[in-house]
What we know:
The complex is a heterotrimer.
Chain A: H1 3-15, H2 17-23, H3 35-68, H4 84-112, E1 120-127, E2 130-136, E3 144-147, H5 153-156, E4 174-177, E5 182-188, E6 193-197, E7 202-206, E8 212-216, E9 222-228, E10 240-246, H6 248-268, H7 275-294, H8 310-313, H9 316-325, H10 341-353, H11 365-373
Parallel strand pairs in A: 1-5, 4-10
Antiparallel strand pairs in A: 1-2, 2-3, 5-8, 6-7, 6-9, 9-10
Helix pairs in contact in A: 3-4, 7-10, 10-11
Chain B: H1 8-42, E1 66-74, E2 81-84, E3 88-91, E4 96-105, E5 111-120, E6 128-133, E7 139-141, E8 145-155, E9 165-174, H2 181-184
Chain C: H1 12-17, H2 21-49, H3 60-95, H4 103-111, H5 113-122, H6 150-177, H7 190-221, H8 235-269, H9 276-289, H10 305-317, H11 319-333, H12 342-365, H13 367-373, H14 377-407, E1 409-410, H15 413-440, H16 454-484, E2 486-487
Antiparallel strand pairs in C: 1-2
Helix pairs in contact in C: 2-3, 2-4, 2-16, 3-6, 3-8, 3-14, 4-6, 5-6, 6-7, 7-8, 7-9, 8-11, 8-12, 8-14, 9-11, 11-12, 12-14, 12-15, 14-15, 15-16
Amino acid sequence: MSFKKSLFVAGAAMSSWPLLALAQNQVNMSPGVTEIGAEIYDLHMLILIICVIIGLLVFGVMFYSIIYHRKSRGVVPAQFHESTKVEIAWTAVPFLILVGMAVPATSTLLEVYDNDEAELDILITGYQWKWRYEYLDDSGAPVAFFSNLSTSQEAIYNTEDKGQNYLLEVDEPLVIPVDTKVRFLITANDVIHSWWVPEMAVKRDAIPGFINEAWSKVSEEGIYRGQCTELCGAYHGFMPVVVHAVSQEEFDSWMAAKRAEKATELASASVEMSLDALMSEGEAIYNTQCVACHGAAGEGGVGKAIAGSAVALGDINTHLDVSIKGVAGTAMQAFGGQLSDTEMAAVITYQRNAFGNNTGDVVQPADVASYKKG
Amino acid sequence: MLRLTNNPGTDTALKLAAVACVMFAFVFVVMVPLYDVMCDVLGINGKTSGSAYTAVPAQVDTSRQVTVQFIATNNDGMPWVFRPEVRQLTVHPGEAVDMLFHATNPTGAAMVAQAIPSVTPSRAAAYFHKTECFCFDQQPLEGRSAAEMPLQFVVDQALPSDIRTITLSYTLFDVTDMTGDKIAAR
Amino acid sequence: MGAHHHGPARGITRWLFTTNHKDIGTMYLWFSFAMFILGGAFAMIIRAELFQPGMQLVEPGFFNQMTTLHGLVMVFGAIMPSFVGLANWLIPMMIGAPDMALPRMNNWSFWILPPGFLMLASTLFMEGGAPAFGWTFYAPLSTTYAAPSVTFFIFAIHVLGMSSIMGSINIIATVMNMRAPGMSYMKLPLFVWTWLITAFLLVAVMPVLAGAVTMMLMDIHFGTSFFSAAGGGDPVLFQHIFWFFGHPEVYIIILPAFGVVSQIIPAFSRKPLFGYASMVYATASIAFLSFIVWAHHMYTVGMPVAGELYFMYATMLIAVPTGVKVFNWISTMWRGALSFETPMLFSIGFLVLFTIGGFTGLMLSIAPADFQYHDTYFVVAHFHYVMVAGAVFSMTAAVYFWLPKWTGRMYNETMGKLHFWVSFVGFNITFFPQHFVGLAGMPRRVPDYALQFADFNMMSSIGAFVYGASQILFLYNVIATIVAGEKVSDEKVWDGAEGLEWTVPTPAPYHTFEVPPKVDTAAAHG
């Protein structure tokens, strides 16, 4: 954006503040769409109001003093400097107010920690920098997928307009049924993350090696957006959470579709794919999984350059090795468990044929599978 | 009061320096072990005891059922395939239950893994006893081979009655590079 | 030191080898101001990037380096050393001592600071960049996943910790052993009291921080697993150790500020401080409570509910002694004869804004509500209200208040007032809207944000530039005062000021109280 345009935007924003501040910008916590969320909101408002009242009293006294007890008015200063009665009063009264606040706070907290049976269990795993969701159930092949930021690099780097849900949109959202108690089991793969959806009033740290739990019962259908709230490295600001709360029927049909999709995927692993098909799927995967570190033109960044790199131009097995197992001690993760064999084959094929890396190599899903077997 | 030197300023300084040294040592010799004890008692992070529980012969409470869920995850860069035999079991408190986890090392090299258990709700951790567990030791596995890893556990009869589901999670870490003396440091 | 009265040595050696508390105080103050500017420059980069949604100026990784260094430099480089500098200048003069108890150690504790910060700043130019894991450096982001420069960061923390511990030991030794005859503990000026308690906190918790970074060092280089689950450790243990240091650290920053305003408000109210004894007890209870509330920074790690409740109740209790302090200051002003010179303006600014920060602190202590506040901009707003409007405003007030005594010259009052108003307005434009975006759902430490946060962020950035620019006024005013300020020679520069430091000549000579003063047993504390 040019300097002039920036100035214009700044000016426009400033001139519209008084209106905007009231009309569009959210200034308070959202009561959300869960009972707990509403309770927390009430608790927040109660304490805020108590603080505001105490604040008005305290500042009122102070400003009275500032206005009426000025030297310039010729007042003679009093010399009192203690009063046991007053001092006891302003120790005891705040204490009682605090006890009054502690009561609703305790009851809300106990509800947050309720361990009652949940109807659906979802395992949430934080990765640098995406979330993985797995629906825990008895079936042998549970539905599981990664949820990546879907905002384009162009929008982030201002060469493209930013959509309404800029930075709060993902390729595959978490889907949950409404009016159902859902338990979230939260952990992490690498560093500590924190899973937060403000409107569901759920925020819980995802800690590698350990498991945390939280629950939610959403009462309204809708799309709820949140973000990672624990600094987890360079792209901490770019791993949103999106939850679709849908009716039970919709949820069931979504679940059935996911299962079918999974079955097809397993079947397709043995199918030979064309270079074009691999390239187009590979590009899509590259733009969600690789682009943040390796750059839109494979020029590198946090990660090494892919354009003209020894790995992408060299031995296919090395390329598979790096992609599947990651590189220890760097931000390069082991993608072997994150991408299906088909996706892995596609993205490797893409990296070997895009950005001027015209090797002509085609890597098939079966190649990935056989590499994994050794 | 104890006098270390004739100069009162130096005297105070030496005592305070001693306090500082004690506080430094406090972190290592008190805070770390104390945290481990607190974890055991309170179930912080759902940590369970790191050693085998000696089963106290007790009656099985057949009037009550508890669901135990199993989760197996791999930490960053761990290439093994690791999964529980079943997703969940319904057990009675007091009953000794056997369970298996499957692990496959698909790589060409021998590796060593360490499974870290974590139980949620954390309140249940103190009532979840493992009489036998693959997580007590590091698990070596040759390249391109598979193993079944056993677990035997008992859910304590004293488990608070509002807890009806216990989730046991194992995270598998690659500790090939930190075996031997290094791990003994902690 | 001989029996001769002599002035300072000449040239650079005066500063390198000085053991004079005033020289060392001066160096601390200038050093901390330089760090304030450096940390401020990092803040300007942060606010410039956050001026609009989208990435404009820096890359996300570099942004994290900026937030990390901003926090570290401001806490360990600007605020803490500035109060140590103030303590050096004032404590001997306030208790009637000729110098600090351990003058040579005093020299070392200052001179290891600049190399420490040089080491920290040099990480910016290393491969992989500076530390990018936040000033709280949670493991494993700061261990397994950190850039190689983390080792330099660890050593820098060790050096800064050493400096703080030595400085604190010196202050305690001075207050315990060097008081003039008749200066009993309950006659000490409140600034001395708050610093005495702060120094005890520092001696107790800086070693804990040193322990935490030593464990990191061992995890990174020597194969231990204090903070890694793989070897039987626990990343959450790091947070417990860090906040066991970190929460007292917060009070280390704010207690001397309490001391400063407790000197200034009575002076410009021309009335003794209300409730001196209760101020001392409140300070001591805040210090005590600071050791037992640390995990309120960690409500979302999944503590057992009993732990959450305990930490919530204990934290809420802090509101009681803090409230006592605020009520005491206001009662001091009540029916006084107030005038509003720059130090008083900054003190009143402190009082208003710190109280707001205290209220948000109370809100944050409520565990279930904290699930919504935690790690959002609401927290950022809260701690800037207590740290900037608390510590920095009171430090600024202190400089204006004692500058005439130090230099024998009066600062430009009009410019001082302008500095206050620009700072006050700039500060509030910067940080008040951050409460809103935080409540609306904006996480902290993000280099980019959703469109609904855009207006308030732009406002915040503009406020930050204004607040930043106002510091240039401050620097100019201070330098202009030293060089060409109007001369003052009254011992008591301010008619309402009380205390021994106002009984020595103005400007304060190089050596003061070589013969201990007689403290009037009837006189109230300054």
